[in-house]
Amino acid sequence: MLTQSLIDVLRSVDTPTICNALELATGGRSAHGFTYGTLIAAPCPMTPMLGFARTARIRAMAPASDTPQQLRARRLAYYRYVASTSPLLPTLVVMQDLDPRPGTGSFWGEVNSAVHLSLGVAGVLTNGSVRDLGDLAPTFPILAGSIGPSHAHVHVVDFGEPVEVFDLPVQHDALLHADRHGAVAIPLDAVPLLPDGIRRMQRKEAPLLKAARSPGFGVDAIEQAMRDADDIH
Question: In a 3-state reduction of DSSP, which class is residue 116?
Fold first, then answer.
């Protein structure tokens, strides 16, 4: 289902365009299936992320009850889990901070951005925090809930389980598109319909954009442009 040409199309547009195209592909608007709220995009500007979700959960406000050996083994198992093995589409980490005050300790900074980039991960979506803003891997996109200075007691609790980040429920292997606006889950049965949906949305928006950018623009021009857009199917 996912060919290189299809992947290239999805990566060539921003996440709001994917949301618009999904409305056409699924038959109507929806108030679900995407993140809610204002996220921190680092580094900025960021390129769109597209990948299969690898889920994980962390805590940082209190020390873990596990031994150092157990924590190390879990961290290594986590890295093996998120590492990308697909020749076409990479993984995308979705990490839920379970603390009552998410972002107390940051998992994402200079080291983990470099590690995950080298593992072939497309980027990360987390309600936790990000730090080391001047030293992050410059081509590794991070969408976070906040910025903080410390890693506190951050540790991986588990991975591969369902998570929820910014009101978006995500399961292992869900297909996600994300950029500085947030993230949207793409139903697999809608994927083949998206290129046509993207083209249709762009054609429908073109008359109004052209009118708005022309001299003498007014309400009459809006009305005509809306008629023109309605005629595009």
Answer: helix
